[in-house]
Each structure stands twice: as structure tokens, then as C-alpha cells.
Design brief:
This protein has 155 residues and is mainly α. Helices cover 75% and strands 0% of the residues.
Amino acid sequence: MAKLTQLIDNEVFRAYATYTVIVLLKMMLMSLITAYFRVTRKAFVNPEDTAVFGKGESAKKNLRTDPDVERVRRGHLNDLENIVPFLGIGLLYALSGPELSTALLHFRIFAGARIVHTFAYLIPLPQPSRGLSWGVGYAVTILMAYKVLKTALYL
């Protein structure tokens, strides 16, 4: 069984760890952006969150949805739907012994696609920019999954 120090010495695993941290930080940033939009738009879903803006009827008017907040939330949800599979599949891919250059290409394209997707969602950029950036990231994850299945499970 490989020791943790052996994993850290593995360049492909270090590349995976680097790009995993980048996309996880990006996903965490979406929480802060959601909070920013909630506060600046005064749009909350929990009554206790409105207490800062007053009590009674003045607070109740802030219990509402806002299109900008919902847009950020959808972007964050899309991150959860795409980054979580990347974490598992990317780890298995990194452990399957790919060439460093190929692994870096996969990890960089995925991270870049997720960053472009976020800008496409938040600005918003015209379609098909958001759809293409999603598709590129998704395709990278599928390609890594195929490589894992082909290498590790002999398919």
C-alpha cells in the first residue's frame, strides 16, 4: 500500500491536488457571492436572516426571491453537480498512472471551463458560452472516467 508521502511525491497527484483546490475555492467563492447578492438585494429565505433589516412588516418584505440571487444559486448548484464528480473521478484518474502532460491538460481544461462557466453565468455572457463551457468540463470528466475504466477495470 502506498504511503501518503509517496502520493505527495507523485507529480500527477500534486497536479490533481492543485487543480482540485482551485475549483473547490472557486465553488466556495460562490457561497460568498450568493451572500453578497442576498444582502445587497435584501432577499432572504429565512425569517431570522431579515432581523438585521428591522422587525415585523419591514422585515417580512425581505422574505422573497430575487432573480440575481437565484442566478448565482443556480451557478453554485451547477458547480456542485460538476465539481463533485470531478473530485472522485479525477482522483481515480490521477492514481491510474496517466502521463503528467496529459493529466495536466485534463485538469487545466476542467478548471478553466468551470471558471469560464462561472463568468458566463454571473455576467451573463450570451449563449452558447455557458453551455460550451459546461460541456467542455463535463467531457473532460467523462474522458477521465473512461481512462480509469479502461486502465483499472480492463474494459
